[in-house]
Structures are given as C-alpha cells and as structure tokens.
Specification:
By secondary structure, the protein is an alpha/beta fold. The chain has 18 helices and 21 strands. About 30% of the residues lie in helices and about 20% in strands.
C-alpha cells in the first residue's frame, strides 16, 4: 500500500453548486487526501491535515477540476487513420482546396513509388473549391496507385479503380448493412462509399497495415489524449480485437487514461464480451448503432430539404435533396433487441429530426419489450433535436450527448449553406438541460480536436469562430457546461461510482487548469491551458 497522499491547491467540486453569486462553500476545497488512488477526504486545509508519514503534492496556482471525460470518442479510429501512412488533410490542418490537392499529388509523386495513398479529412464545406470527385477523376490523378480519400466526418470516402480492386469491391459487390457504394446509371461503382461499413471496407488495406502497429499507435494517441486533460475516454468504435488490446496496454502499464467501450453493432450480431467485464481502468459498457449519417455529406434524415446552394452542389446534392436514414425504425428495434435484453446500454448516432424520432420510437419499444429501467440509452450528436424531442427523450430515461463544437467550425455553414435558420438551433444544449437531461458534450474522434474546454464555452455562447451567434438555440449555464465533461459524463458511461467528481470514495482523477473555470470568461475558458492531470492521484 502506497503512503497516503495529501494534495493541496484550489479544487472545484462540480458535483456541488460551485458557480454563481452564492456558491456552496464546500465546492472550493483546498486539500484532498488520497489512499491507493481513492479520495478519502476533501475540504479545507484544517479539515484535511497532513497524515504522519504521508506524501505531499502542491498544485501551486492552478485550479483542479474532476478529470475531464470524453464520452464519445474514437481513439481506435484515430490510431488507425492518423499518423504514419496517412495524409492529414483535415480542415483544422489544411485550409484550402489547393493545399488539399497539393498534399495528395505530392504523396502520389513520391520516390519511391507509394504502394497506396490514403488521405483523411476531406471537407468541401470548409475547404472551399473542393468538389466531390468521381472514380474517373481519381483514376486520372492516381492512375494504378490505389487512392482513398476519407471525408472529415468519416461517413464517406472516395476511391479510384485501383483502390476498389485492392479492397475486392466491384459492381457486383452488395451494399453492407446500413451503408452503400455509389453507382452510376449503368450500375458501375461511382467512386464513393457511404457510411461506416462501406468506408471501412474501402479503407481496409490501409487499416490492416496500421493494425500491425496498433498497440504502439494506440499508446501514443492515448498519451496525447491525456495531454489535453482528458482522463477517461469512450471508444465508440470498440470491436472484438480492442478488448484484448486495451487489456494488454493496461497490464503493461501503458494505458494512461480510462477507457469505456461501445461495440459497433450490425444486424444479427451479439456483444463479444460478457455484460460484466473489465475494471475501473478499462471495460466495455455499451453498443453503438447509427440511425442516420453526417450533415456534411447530405446524409441526415430530416423532414425538410437541404438548401440549394453552391456548397450543397459541391458535396454532390441535387436541388431539394432530403437525407435518408440508415435503418428503418423496425431495423433499429431488431438490432437493439440483440443487446438490450442482456442489459447493454445502446448509443445511437442521430442528427436529423426524423432520425431522432425513429431512434426514440425504437428505444420506447425496447424499453417496453424488456421492461427496462436504468437503461441510460443514448442519443448521439443531436444536431437538429428539438425541445420537444429532448423532453420526450428525458421522459423515456434516454440520455443525450451533443456535438456542440460543430457550432465552432461549421456554425456559418449550417445556416448559410445547408439548413437556413433551422441550422441556428443546432446542438441546442440549453434545451437539453432545460428538459432535465444530464447532457454531455464530445469531439468525436478525428472530426474536431480534443477541446472539452472549448465545448463548454461554445455551449454557453453558441458562437462560431467567425463570431456569428447561433440564436436559434439556448445557451447552457457554466455549471451545466462544467458537468457535461465531468459528473454527467461519468454517469452517462455508467461510471459515476468511480469517477466524475472530487468526492470521497471516488478515484482521484483530476485536471489542473491555469484559470478558474467557474468565473473565467468563455474566451478564457476555451483557451485555458492544461497544467497537469492525474489518474488515481498520479500525475502524468
């Protein structure tokens, strides 16, 4: 047993009312006692004296909050699709269409000749001038070198003939469940894959090469996650191979954060781990399913059409285009029934208002059929979720996780290019909290950088990076925003008995910031520096 650790500094208890004119006095303690990684006392310096023979850690001028939690990440996808062998063309990295094509053509012209070229992050809505390429376009650029370009959303990918051949895809290849390959009028492949299963198939050769070094790539990526102050991350791309991988990293002392897995679902499948599994460091807690796709590729199920704009033309949408769901409500029920009876939590990607209705209809039937109580079924992203839908979800015991950072990067696009004033209500965090949700925020793997503090700020201001205010939704309070990445996220991951607050009996996970998150301006909070973080009381 390690000696008792006394930590002194300035702590913020987000499980208590720590914000406002009259905050709870107990919400700003100055000392915390940790034994074997667990908080045993927290309070004033007088209330928590130094133990005899114990260790001491002083946090200086920083502000310690509960360890930040990313409740909807994709670390396994990031480890596979970023880094060695992948050209990073994401709009957060490359701003212009010319730079995107320059990077791709430079890789194709490399000496020695590349075995294949794989680029990740295509986004015509932010990299203006890009136009959806056809298979013939990419054949002209790459010739017989397999070329795959993945959209920044990961919900579509473009490929040439050589890449299709390498992946074993041709005109006779059937569409995967919940996904499809684009085809021209004659039935030939057009050079685009839609949704996860089809994208994974066309990206298969690159992902197989990366899998050979996945333990090293994963350990390196999770160390980067930790540097952002995140001490727990959910992997919503969990698969049968990831359980042993994370277990191995844990056993080798190379798992710097806690991991909670959501296994990707498919019709006829079942969970690959028993319902009771893992420990406080790593375990599978749920199942992932997709009701619809990405707004940026025209594939979210709405009751109204996309706008007819230059931007929608660039992403290949015809005038009057209305996105469609990946599954019918009945199919969602069938998939959910494979897991819900065993007690698994289900997390369903749903953006459009039609998709959200379908998801809630499916959840309501599963709850009835299996007489479920504390199921904590999740709706993911919630782009166009309405106040009435938030209220209905809350009445069913369904919880929500919002992708509020879409407002930062695509706020102007949502209104001017895609949905008009309907886009101004995107990711309405205030409506979620008003409906009684323990809502959370997330950054969704490679789509946006890990920036939980910016999520908190933008949920409060609803302002894009150009300064545009999306007034169709309601702002979140500071306390709700802080809880979205701490106490609420822990509850959503069925881990509130372990993490999410600085309270006796919970693990000593915390993140140290250079600002007081209770009173900093939204701009200061978004730009705050992470000075340190700890898991089980150990800085890393």
């Amino acid at each position: 047993m390690a000696p008792t650790l006394r930590i002194t500094g300035r702590f913020v208890r987000t499980d208590l009312d720590c914000v406002g004119e009259n905050p709870d006095p107990a919400s700003a303690p100055e000392a915390m006692l940790v034994e074997d990684g667990t908080i045993v006392a927290i309070g004033s310096r007088d209330e928590v004296p130094a133990p005899a023979g114990g260790r001491h850690l002083d946090l200086g001028e920083g502000w310690a909050i509960p360890g930040l939690i990313e409740p909807h990440g994709h670390p396994s996808e990031v480890a596979l699709l970023m880094g060695e062998g992948v050209i990073d063309i994401r709009p957060v990295t490359i701003a212009s269409a010319d730079e995107v094509w320059g990077s791709i053509k430079q890789a194709l012209a490399a000496d020695p000749r590349p075995e294949r070229v794989f680029a990740n992050g295509w986004d015509p809505l932010l990299q203006r001038g890009l136009v959806q390429p056809t298979r013939a376009d990419l054949d002209a650029v790459a010739g017989d070198i397999p070329l795959v370009i993945v959209h920044n959303s990961l919900h579509s990918a473009y490929f040439n003939t050589a890449a299709a051949r390498e992946a074993g895809i041709d005109r006779d290849t059937p569409d995967p469940a919940g996904a499809s390959y684009g085809r021209d009028a004659s039935g030939e492949l057009s050079g685009v894959a839609y949704e996860a299963a089809a994208v994974a198939r066309i990206a298969g050769p690159v992902m197989e090469a990366a899998r050979a070094r996945l333990p090293e790539r994963m350990a390196a990526h999770l160390a980067e996650v930790r540097r952002h102050g995140i001490t727990t991350i959910a992997d919503l791309s969990w698969s049968a191979e990831l359980g042993p991988l994370f277990d191995g990293l844990h056993a080798a002392g190379r798992l710097p954060v806690r991991v909670r897995g959501y296994e990707t679902s498919s019709p006829g499948a079942h969970a690959t781990r028993p319902f009771v599994n893992g420990d406080a460091r790593v375990r599978q807690v749920g199942i992932k399913v997709w009701s619809d796709g990405s707004p940026w590729v025209g594939n979210i199920a709405t009751s109204f059409p996309y706008l007819d704009t230059e931007a929608t033309h660039a992403i290949g949408l015809e005038p009057g285009h209305i996105g469609k769901a990946n599954y019918t409500t009945e199919q969602l029920i069938d998939i959910g029934a494979q897991y819900a009876g065993e007690g698994w939590q289900i997390a369903c990607h749903s953006h459009g208002d039609v998709a959200i209705d379908s998801t809630l209809d499916a959840y309501e039937e599963l709850i009835r059929r299996f007489a479920l109580r504390d199921h904590r079924f999740r709706v993911e992203h919630c782009g166009l979720m309405t106040p009435d839908q938030f209220s209905r979800a809350a009445s069913l015991g369904v919880t929500v996780s919002l992708f509020v950072d879409h407002i930062t990067y695509w706020g102007d696009v949502l209104i001017d290019d895609l949905f008009g004033e309907r886009g101004a209500s995107w990711a309405d965090a205030g409506a979620a909290f008003a409906a009684g949700h323990r809502a959370t925020f997330h950054n969704d793997g490679t789509v946006t950088p890990y920036e939980p503090l910016r999520n908190m700020a933008v949920a409060e201001t609803r302002t894009s990076r150009t300064g545009r205010h999306l007034g169709g939704g309601t702002p979140a309070s500071r306390l709700d925003a802080l809880r979205a990445h701490t106490a609420n996220a822990a509850w959503q991951l069925r881990s509130e008995h372990e993490i999410g607050a600085l309270a006796p009996g919970l693990r000593a996970d915390f993140t140290v910031l250079d600002v007081d998150p209770r009173s900093a301006t939204p701009e200061a909070l978004a730009g705050a520096r992470v000075l340190a973080s700890a898991v089980d009381g150990e800085l890393g």
